[in-house]
Amino acid sequence: MNLARRIERYLPQPLLELVKDISGQAAKRGERVYLVGGVVRDLLLGDPSLRSGLRFDLDLVVEGDAVKLAQQVAETSQAKLLAHHRFGTAKLRYENFTLDLATARKETYARPGALPTVAPGTLKDDLFRRDFSINAMAISLAASDYGELIDPHHGKSDLKHGLIRILHPKSFTDDATRILRAVRYEQRLGFELETQTAQLLKRDTPMLDTISGDRIRHELELILREGQPELVIKRLAELGVLPRISPFLKGDGWITEKFGRVRRLKKPNQLPSLYFCLLIYSFSERGLEQFIARLNTPAKLSQAMRDTLHLKTRLPLLDKPSLKPSEIYYLLREYEPVAVQTNALASDSSVIQHHLQLFLTKLRYVKTSLDGEELKKLGIPAGPEMGKVLQTLHKAKLDGEVSTKADERRLALSFRPDYKGRGGRRPQSHSKNAPPR
Ligand code: ATP
């Protein structure tokens, strides 16, 4: 099968010219270049994300020396080069695209879950080390057979029949991250696990224990970047994979409903952390610490998850309609916003939801107009007294007792040591409102 016309139709013209040029330079060196990986699969599927130009990263395999070829290409173009001599790979970064060039290689696994031992090989070797038949196809970029599909594992047929198939029975034991990848592609594409693949996946699920926390977390992050990650989570639960990562993880209707609501918030940057915080919402503190240790989660995400559970225990305090804005603020100010958002999504009480949203959208941004310098000019001595004044001003602003700078100045002046009171008394100190933790 020749895919030349499809390539021309789906890939942006400047990118095409670039890969043809690279292939031409390779030919002069007696080498061949192939397009590989997800892009071949998506080209065959006619995936619209290719056409809209959302996808600018391409994987190329070089039968030859990928690093030397990339160096040569970088010398004659605007590309930034990042070479990994040890792995025989190089990245060429252009303004709008990234090309990953890899020397065709053979891989062997010394033991399950270990990183593979790598040796130069042919394109066939390189395709054989891949995860699934639908990801193990290549397209030739050489002038002599430009666009020719190379499909030794019948990926095209599996695409047609909607099947996820591993390439050999040891695939999941070699690299158990493929268990998570299999389910991710299955759900993304609406496919099925091929019968033997499904059997081996279930048999080899315990091999996930051989995978480092960072690699498991990376695969979970990829799942959480899918359009509907809840489908993957639910299926992982059905297959008995989730408990292997943590016995407390669930893929039930609650997760499905809350994940859907997260997306409706339209906060794409926060999506993965919100999903993580929802995933651990039913955990005990101990379960969470085990999860954090297993996945080696980065400090900020760990904090967001811990805050989520801590705040969950304090939600009853927020279930009072009469709470003042300042009281809400002091209850919530120390928590990661993602933890507050997660609790807003998780809570069934409209009062709690309202208070959490008020904090997120308004209260956390409230600032006094006067700062320490201005207070000094008004005669407030620096030190603890000034801290108290600033806190009083902030609280009054939160509660709508002051709104303009003049209001704040009046309130601040009442704290001056020589304040006599103009027919009134000094406002009460608000230092009672200590932070929650
Ligand atoms: P997408 O980005 O759409 O999920 P992709 O196929 O481009 O798909 P990558 O994770 O970028 O996904 O991987 C590129 C290719 O590398 C895959 O198509 C597959 O051939 C191979 N690959 C990635 N991870 C593994 C793995 N754990 N085992 C074997 N091959 C893998």
Commentary on this structure:
- The protein is an alpha+beta fold and 437 residues long.
- The chain folds into 4 domains: 1-161, Beta Polymerase, domain 2 (2-Layer Sandwich); 167-265, cca-adding enzyme, domain 2; 298-365; 372-424, no CATH class.
- It has 23 helices and 11 strands.
- It has helices at 4-10, 13-28, 38-45, 48-51, 66-75, 123-128, 155-161, 171-174, 177-189, 195-204, 213-224, 229-238, 242-245, 253-264, 271-279, 285-295, 299-314, 325-332, 337-346, 350-361, 372-377, 384-398, 405-413, and strands at residues 32-36, 57-63, 80-84, 89-93, 98-103, 105-108, 117-120, 138-140, 149-150, 163-164, 192-193.
- The strands form 3 sheets. It has a 7-stranded mixed sheet with strand order 3-4-5-2-1-8-9. It has a two-stranded antiparallel ribbon with strand order 6-7. It has a two-stranded parallel ribbon with strand order 10-11.
- Helix 12 (229-238) runs antiparallel to helix 14 (253-264) and helix 18 packs across helix 20.
- The longest helix is centred in the N-terminal third of the chain and has 16 residues, at 13-28.
- Residues 422-437 have low confidence and may be disordered.
- The structure holds adenosine-5'-triphosphate.
- Adenosine-5'-triphosphate binds at residues 37-38, 59, 130-131, 135-136, 175, 177-178.
List the helices and strands and how they pair.
Elements: H1 4-10, H2 13-28, E1 32-36, H3 38-45, H4 48-51, E2 57-63, H5 66-75, E3 80-84, E4 89-93, E5 98-103, E6 105-108, E7 117-120, H6 123-128, E8 138-140, E9 149-150, H7 155-161, E10 163-164, H8 171-174, H9 177-189, E11 192-193, H10 195-204, H11 213-224, H12 229-238, H13 242-245, H14 253-264, H15 271-279, H16 285-295, H17 299-314, H18 325-332, H19 337-346, H20 350-361, H21 372-377, H22 384-398, H23 405-413
Parallel strand pairs: 2-5, 10-11
Antiparallel strand pairs: 1-2, 1-8, 3-4, 4-5, 6-7, 8-9
Helix pairs in contact: 9-11, 9-12, 12-14, 14-15, 15-19, 17-19, 18-20, 19-20
Bound molecules: adenosine-5'-triphosphate.
